[in-house]
C-alpha cells in the first residue's frame, strides 16, 4: 500500500502516517519531480551504491564508504574508512572532505542541535562536528562503544546504541549533549550487538540485534521491550545490521551481513512479515551493511550502502 505524502514549506516532504504516529521525518528538497533512491554501504571496500527505489536498477556510486546521511538542506555526508567524512550536494556532486579525525568512522547522524555525530569505531568514541566540519566534542558512552544513533522525535534527545547492548540517552543543554539516562538496559529483549536504531512509523524504537538475527521493538518513550518485530531465520539472514523503511511502500528493508548470507531483505513494515529474501540480488562481493532511503532532484532515489 502506497503511503500518502504531502509537500511542506521549502519542499519538505513527510508521510501522513508518520505525522499521525508522531514520527515526523523531514527531507528538504526541491518541490518539483523528486526521485527516491536507496543507498547501500558495507565494509568490504565497496563504494556506496544507489538504486532506483521503485525498479531496483542501479543508478550510480559514490566513494567507498560505510554510512550516509543527509542534513536539513539536502546535502549528503558519507563516512569513509580513511577517517574522513565526505560531503555531496543534493544532486550527489562531490564537494570534497567535510571533516577528518575519526578512526574507522561508521554511523552518522545529525542531531537536534544541528551538528553531525560520527561513531569512531576504531577507538570506541563518538565525535561531534559543527557546520564547518570542526570537531568540537568527543563523547565516551557510559559503557561500551557507540553504534547506531537516532533522535527521539518525542523530545529531541539523541539515542546511541552501544556494544554493551544498551541504548544511551543524551539531552542537549545549551546545545551541548549531556548523558541523562540508559533508555534500554543491558540485554533487554535479547539485545545483542546492536546495529542501526530507528523510530518506526508507529512511534516505537526499532533496533537491529545483529547477534540474534532479529529486529527488536521497544517503547519509543520508556524504552521498555515490546517484542521482536521480526525474527529472521539463519536460512534467510545472519547478523542484521541496517534497517530503513521505504517512505512510499512502508516496507522495512534489513541488511543481512553474515558470511554467505550477504543480502537485503524486505519485510512488511507494519507486521514484520517476510516479503523478499534478497532484494536486488546482492552477494558476498557487495556485502550490504547499512541502508538509507533519500529523495534527490529531479526524482526520488533509494540508496544502498555496501
What's the CATH C level? Mainly Beta
Number of strands: 28
CATH level-two architecture: 7 Propeller
Mean pLDDT: 83
Low-confidence stretches: 1-32
What spatial form do the alpha-carbon principal axes imply? Answer: globular
Class of secondary structure makeup: mainly beta
End-to-end Cα distance, whole Å, is: 28 Å
CATH superfamily: YVTN repeat-like/Quinoprotein amine dehydrogenase
Annotation field: number of helices: 1
Task: State the domain count.
Answer: 1
Rg from C-alpha positions? 17 Å
Could you say what the CATH topology is called? Methylamine Dehydrogenase, Chain H
Q: Would you list the SSEs in sequence order as H and E? A: EEHEEEEEEEEEEEEEEEEEEEEEEEEEE
Verbal overview:
- This protein is an all-beta fold.
- It has one domain: YVTN repeat-like/Quinoprotein amine dehydrogenase (Methylamine Dehydrogenase, Chain H).
- The chain has one helix at residues 16-21, and strands at residues 5-7, 12-15, 27-28, 35-41, 47-52, 58-64, 67-70, 76-79, 85-88, 94-99, 105-110, 116-120, 125-129, 135-139, 146-151, 158-162, 167-173, 176-184, 194-199, 205-209, 214-218, 225-231, 240-245, 252-256, 263-267, 274-276, 290-296, 300-305.
- The protein is globular and about 45 Å long.
- Strands 4, 5, 6, 27 and 28 form a 5-stranded mixed beta sheet that branches. A 4-stranded antiparallel beta sheet has the order 7-8-9-10, with no helix packed on it. It has a 4-stranded antiparallel beta sheet with strand order 11-12-13-14, with no helix packed on it.
- It contains 1 helix and 28 strands.
